[in-house]
Design a protein that fits this description.
180 residues, 0% strand
């Protein structure tokens, strides 16, 4: 079971990365249909880019659960902590390097995305392999995943007016009308 779970965890790194990169363009490709905005980036804010890791990782986790996760203790706790690590990694690394350089660089942004996904997947696996917490751990994991999902949905339409949520190119927040 450990070998199979590890294999699916590691396969998830390129799968989540590639799906997240593709999702960057989904909102515009689907004519800026608001429900799509819950899952795809609606602007260039750091928060919106976190969706590009979150949703593909959730889908990958559900696939992994169906294949080999049903007998893994604390599966959903591991997923939740892995997701949190991904999101915190993206935000922390982005703000750290832009504080040093004074601006963002696209290839560094993409590299940070990949590194955060990798670290998040490993954190998820490690959590699942340690001493189990049982039902309370699973309940906490499911609750955290649902909370993060709700926050992505809510803040797509009603984001706080904080730098994390600000679209750098337009200065707007959340879903806004396309220029022109």
């Amino acid at each position: 079971m450990d070998d199979e779970l590890l294999m699916w965890t590691l396969l998830g790194i390129p799968a989540i990365f590639l799906a997240g990169c593709a999702m960057h363009f989904m909102f515009d490709l689907l004519r800026r249909w608001p429900p799509v905005g819950i899952f795809a980036a609606v602007n260039e804010s750091v928060w919106e880019h976190c969706k590009l890791a979150f949703w593909p990782a959730v889908v990958w986790a559900m696939l992994t659960y169906a294949i080999c996760g049903r007998n893994v203790s604390d599966f959903f706790l591991g997923v939740a902590l892995g997701l949190a690590v991904m999101l915190i990694g993206i935000v922390a690394l982005f703000y750290a390097y832009t504080a040093v350089l004074g601006h963002h660089v696209l290839w560094i942004d993409i590299a940070i995305f990949g590194v955060a996904v990798g670290i998040g997947q490993i954190a998820s696996y490690v959590t699942m392999r340690r001493a189990p917490l049982g039902k309370s751990g699973e309940a906490a994991g499911i609750g955290l995943i649902l909370l993060m999902s709700a926050l992505f949905a809510i803040f797509t339409f009603w984001p706080p007016r904080l730098p994390l949520f600000k679209d750098g190119p337009t200065g707007t927040y959340g879903i806004h009308k396309a220029p022109g």
